[in-house]
Each structure stands twice: as C-alpha cells, then as structure tokens.
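The pair is quoted verbatim underneath.

:::
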Amino acid sequence: MNIIKLVLAATLGLTAAASFGETTQEAAVKKLIEPRLGPGAKVDSVVKTPYSGLYEVRTGGDIIYTDEKAKYLFVGRVIDTQTYQDYTKQRVDEISKIKFTDLPLASAVKMVKGDGKRVIAVFEDPNCGYCKRFRHTLQEMNNVTVYTFMYNILAADSAIKSKNIWCTADPAKAWDDWMLNGKAAAAAPASCNAPNEQVLALGQKMKITGTPTIFFTDGSRIPGAIDAKALETKFAAIK
C-alpha cells in the first residue's frame, strides 16, 4: 500500500480529529516532545496521522513530525509522489487562516481603486523593498480595496516613517508617494497618535514574520510579494 496516498484523507481528517480533543496518546506525545524542542518551545497541538505512525506536531505556524515515543523528529514536507501535491503546505495554509472580518481595519490605511469589490489586507514595512515592489503590482490592478497595516519590524525608523504617513491628511496617497516614488511625508505633530503599537501586537499575534504578508477575504494568507498574474488568479479562486 502506498502510504503517502492516504495523506489527502488525512489532511481532511486531522482537522476533524483535532476538533474532538487530543487522545491520551497524543497528549503523551505532546508532553514528551515539547521539552525536547528546546527552551521556551511551545507545542500547540499533536495529532496522529494515518501514515507511518507519525504524529503531526504544530508549533506556531510550523508543522513537524515525530514518532509515538517522541524519539525522532522529522522536519520536512509530506508530498504525493504521483501528483506532487504538498500536503504539509496545505496543512500550514489551513492553520494559518484568519477570520478576515476580525481584522481591525480602522488601524489600516485604506485605498480603493475602481469599484473596490476585491479586497485584501497587507502588512508592510515602509523600509521593505519587496513591499515597494508589491505596491507597483497594485498599481496595475483595478477594482480593488487595499487595507495596509504598517507593520514596523525592519528598521529603527520604520515606526517614525509610518507615523508621519498616518498623520497626513491623505495617508493612502502619502503611503504610495513614499513606497512608489520615495517622497517622504512631513514630520507628524507630537499630538498625533498612530496605531503603530496596536498593529505590531496584532502582527505578532498572527505570527507574521516578514513583509509583505497578504490576507484575502477567504482568510488565507500569502507571505511575500506576488505578481499581478498570481494576484488575479487568487482573486478568481475566491468564491
């Protein structure tokens, strides 16, 4: 029997199994594996898979695998050798989904092009080169609404630049002026409060480790800049 061929059913079954709570064996594996991952490591869940007796160990946004005695650690991806579908990535995508309507959109810079019916939220740092590339991609798009969370993680002056932009009369224009043309916003008045700390805390809670990170209304995320074709394909796939 080709065990890998069972993974598709496993991918669907793991979520269902997790919803009923962990079994005694899964709890035992979790107790064993957590201290073996190093100081401060936190295991969010352990779920038995139907392939090779392995247990899926979820820690943060990562998935690794171990055996029933937590003696061995398997770091890598489970891939169907015939279709090359990456089931580990599928699981990572699944557990990293969010509820889009829970995003605090009032803390984001809003830009609307055309009818604005296609909506994304993106976490960007004003010093991020890949974010600037993605802004050029967005320039090619129409009928989109973009909520930009200024996520200041790359440089000491990122928060200053974000505050200056937030405190302008037109933050969306000021953001594009900087990201597309390198035109800096004027210094913000001391009395102006930008949501920098709230956005930073939000991004950390959502385990966003790089910019840009793009979120779609179906809750899925794409880390990194993508081109217009890939963005159009993703929009088309969202029901």
Notes: The mean pLDDT is 89.
